[in-house]
Amino acid sequence: MISNYANDMRPHLGNAAITMMTPFTSRKAQATSHHRYALHTLDYLTVQSWRPVIHQGELYVLDAQSNLWVPYERQNLLRLIAELNDANKNCEKWSDYTGIAEQVSAIATQPSFFRDAPVGTAFLGSFYTIAGQQLSSEPLLPEHRQRVMLDFAPARVATPNFSQFLDETFRSVAIDEQEQQICLLQEIAGAILLGLMPRFQKAALFYDPYGRAGKGTMERILRQLVPSAFTSAVSPFKWDNEYYLASLIGSRLNVVGELPEGQAIPAANLKSVLGGDLISGRQPTRPVVMFQNEAAHLFTSNHLITTKDHSEAFFSRWLLIEFPNSLLRSGRPLDPGLADRIIGQEMSGIAYWALQGGVRLLQQNRFSPSSVQDRLMQKWRRSTSSVDEFIHECCTLRDDLLERRSAFYASYKAWCNENGRKPHAKGSLKEQMEHRIGLPVRFTLLDGIEIIRGIAVQEAYKDRLTAL
Predict the structure, then answer these.
(1) Which of these, 20, 93, 92, lies nearest to 51 by C-alpha position?
(2) Which CATH number fits domain 385-467: 1.20.1540.10, 3.10.450.320, 1.10.10.10, 1.20.58.100?
(3) Fewer C-beta within 10 Å: the chain N or C terminus?
(4) Per-residue model confidence as pLDDT tens digits over 180-194
(5) Phi-psi category of 59—alpha, beta or left, where left has phi over 0 and alpha has psi -120 to 50?
(6) Please, which residues have CB within 8 angstroms of residue 171's CB and are 6 or more apart in sequence?
(7) Which GO terms describe its molecular function (predicted)?
(8) CATH code reported for the domain at 121-378
(9) pTM confidence score
(10) Reduced to 3 states, what is the DSSP secondary structure of residue 31?
């Protein structure tokens, strides 16, 4: 007989309870092994024809009232196994319960179940999706495979406070900068809302060197596009630790503010997480779980991140948004209630705005270009790479130019000594220049002498070295 606790642990079944009784009873009659007990437990948790699914170490069951797939805690699963089968053969002690739970995991694991879900987001029982690169909505169904639902609906309505905030935050005298930044930000918002960011293997960095420029307000607004239960705050500087990595399991949005300055980011781990590699995480007292990142990552900082990785594989992972209009710098008054007003009054319109950004992102299959992104990326590269900074300050790039490799390295090394930078070894310098996409140089031989074509050290710098 099933106890009251076991009944409480059952998902909302609706009319499905009647259809489940036959398989449930027959499984119990035959159950003598852990495998049979596991099948018996899965039958009990099945809703209509939708069987529970193990994804990234977590058990999800269908909730018939909302049509969402909801997590079923491991402790609850162990207690349910005990309530259903206790004192039966091979189900008499704790090790039996855990063994049956492991068999449940082996049977129900479906790595692609949620990954293959339609692109879209649930709002108040409706599923908004991109069909034929157009936005449409329909009733939320189990086959939409949604774990997240927002408690408001998108609407094509005016957002006066938000629109004014965007205009004041990104206003620029440079042609097209404001429009380009808002366009890119809209696509980032859409990628967060629709769960698309992992597909593009990017992270967003909100950059403001002075403070009080609006990045915190923008981050708070974007956080409303994901229910709080599905957000995390795991610093990328902790991604070399499996316990911190485990906190990303099930997260749809990972938001971290004010990254440390001067400390090099663990770039290899960052590339693995953002690149969709299989990574391992461990929660205390739990086994290691292998999983792939499903979260969008948004970081805010007053400085560009320190890195020892100067590869394209690292820098290509980033979307940079600059917040150029600091209230501290301009002396304008703060508006501490702005974020609350926008969130309280305009989220339906902001969600619609974000969905339009998601539509454009899918149509283009890439994020829109931004001259601010290009400028900041060049600045970031130069600040972390002595090679890039030397080329920027002391060299000329042109197809018809050439420089002896030994002379180029001697000039580079002298510049590093002048500026307190540690020079790369000669071989490392060549590797960085050869692998730098967009740097129009090539190493070759001329009359048996190694040369670099497409670049030359400026004569003014050579003269200064000679004078010294």
Answers:
(1) 20
(2) 1.10.10.10
(3) N
(4) 999 999 999 999 999
(5) beta
(6) 178, 324, 325
(7) ATP binding; hydrolase activity
(8) 3.40.50.300
(9) 0.88
(10) coil
